[in-house]
Amino acid sequence: MWPRLSPPLLTIAIFISNVYAHGGIAKFTVDGKQYKGIAPWEGDSPSPNNGPIRQVATNGPVKDLKSADIACGLDAQFAGGVADAKPGSALVFEWGNIGSKDGAWPHNVGPIMTYMALCKGSCTKFNGTDAQWFKIDQLGQKKDGTWYQGDLMAGKPITLSLPTDLPSGDYLLRHEIIALHLAESVGGAEFYPNCIQMRVTGGGSSTKQPDNTVSFPGAYKANDPGIRINASSLGLPQFY
Ligand SMILES: *[C@@H]1O[C@H](CO)[C@@H](O)[C@H](O)[C@H]1NC(C)=O
Ligand SMILES: *[C@@H]1O[C@H](CO)[C@@H](O)[C@H](O)[C@H]1NC(C)=O
Ligand SMILES: [Cu+2]
């Protein structure tokens, strides 16, 4: 039998579920090799972190687009490792609602963006705020109006490939969910950027940067039409 919650307790329970209705990358796989995300809010505290995924401080979102956190996530730390890849590598991203252990990602509205930037020197000491990012992928809505982000909520991974013409080099990969469920007011959108340190071999030796690069902070503004948006006016069946 379920315990009956008195109204004050009910309020607290709802409050807590809001606080923890966030998450991060649970697993990242490149060409079959899997790396685990680091979730300090789940008790993970690898020290040193020899994996390629930069550890963030909490499972919460970045809200301030002027903060350095928009580059790689809340108080993102350098990681000690790099993930080996090649042009065209198959990437798999699994997200979790980390707060309920091994739970699914909790939101289903808003795009998933993936950027890369050449590290100047080793990625293990390269700050994402100094990067010139180019976008390699974006996943928005499907034909039926639902968002690819909903696949993560259903426990499914997001898959994509590195560009096939990517030159060799050390890169930061910036994989980001923009959750728009509260985005009807300025500052309501939730940003969940994650950075992964990669070494690409077997590509060309060009060091020419793509023409269109952006910086974080800088690329997004709180009033951008895709950032301040009433996503429920898009007529979605369920909305979180
Ligand atoms: C990256 O630079 C920002 C802005 O200067 C700083 O706040 C942050 O601590 C730096 N990150 C690391 C891991 O040093
Ligand atoms: C957002 O859109 C929904 C559906 O069209 C509407 O009911 C709601 O009032 C809108 N919210 C705001 C803040 O405009
Ligand atoms: Cu959230």
From TrEMBL:
It catalyses: [(1->4)-beta-D-glucosyl]n+m + reduced acceptor + O2 = 4-dehydro-beta-D-glucosyl-[(1->4)-beta-D-glucosyl]n-1 + [(1->4)-beta-D-glucosyl]m + acceptor + H2O. GO terms for cellular component: extracellular region. It is found in: Secreted. Keywords: Carbohydrate metabolism, Cellulose degradation, Copper, Disulfide bond, Metal-binding, Monooxygenase, Oxidoreductase, Polysaccharide degradation, Secreted, Signal. Residues 1-21 form the signal peptide. Its cofactor is Cu(2+). Belongs to the polysaccharide monooxygenase AA9 family. This is lytic cellulose monooxygenase (C4-dehydrogenating). The lineage of its organism: Eukaryota, Fungi, Dikarya, Basidiomycota, Agaricomycotina.
